[in-house]
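Lab notebook page, bench 4
Experiment: in silico fold of construct C2
Operator: M.H.
Input chain length: 368 residues
Purpose: comparison with the prior construct
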Amino acid sequence: MPLNLQTHTQHFTNPLYLESGRILEPYDITYETYGHLNDDKSNVIVITHALTGSHHAAGVYEDDSKAGWWDGLIGPKKAIDTNKYFVICTNVIGSCFGSTGPMSPQHPHQEPYRYKFPVVSVKDMVKAQRILFDRLDIHRVEAIIGGSMGGMQALQFGIHYPNFAKKIIALATTYATQAWAIAFNKIAQEAILKDPDFKQGYYDPQLIKEQGLAGMAVGRMAGHISFLSHESMREKFGREYKRTDGLYELFGKFQVESYLEYNGYNFTKWFDPLTYLYITKAINIYDLARGFDSLEEALKKITADLHLISFKNDVLFKNFEMQEIATILKQIGNTNHTYRDIDSDYGHDAFLVELDKFQHHIKDILNA
């Protein structure tokens, strides 16, 4: 059967009450679906995306050559089998790929929100998705699967909507963002804010798409360092020098420098800088224990089968952070969880790249 990729946008006029006490109204949520919904709507799997991800998780658009960010995992006869499951991936609120975010027009005017957009949390993102699923008449799903910020969303679903998913698979994530990750985000935020072309948030988005934003590129380079690891960089680049540059030219480059430049500057042409500030803020303030007396109290709310997957050399969200979740679950008597640490030297982005190391595990969980 074909993938049956479909893209939709739903418009909501009821106010979305945010964790901050502020209100977002009206708002849009863009989402993508794959496969076919069965008659009793019992074959739904929700995919949640990471910081710079979007609703485009699988397949290829007609006018594009780039496949969705988890295309190796989602599709006919793949680990998340669209012959069997109806898969939904939504773009989070605050993003720049169709759902309402800081550069969306503020009702009733057509001017973008910019800094008038409220700070949204990961919990708010999940709440908006839950409202979307209610509208689609989907009240229980087979599984929620996500990595990094997607894993944060998956865990929030488990705590705040305990009867919504039968299974939750969270990869390369944490229970609360730690100082190390916040520090990398700080570099990116400062680099954006101090770039004169950012114009204190009043930039022309079309101009940024054409020319990029140097400050954001620098911040993204710092981010890329945290997505890889010492070992993966050594294996990928070593000390290889760019063949066209002289070793003793001041601005001659190592291959790793060229890689960071290419990824950093290219990124700024397709991802909005204000969106980057808002979503890194959401990641920074993420804490599963907020609103509870302790993390233990929060984790007691989970009734779904919870499967935690970490990666040995993830320097952004260390494997012991996910181990701590598993340890607490054991202490509070939760018997419906598993924890697996994947042997990987790739780093944080292993959940996007080294699919062969965990796809069979995901398939086994879904088939169990």
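Observations: The two ends are 23 Å apart (CA to CA). The CA atoms of residues 105 and 112 lie 4 Å apart.
Next step: discuss at group meeting.
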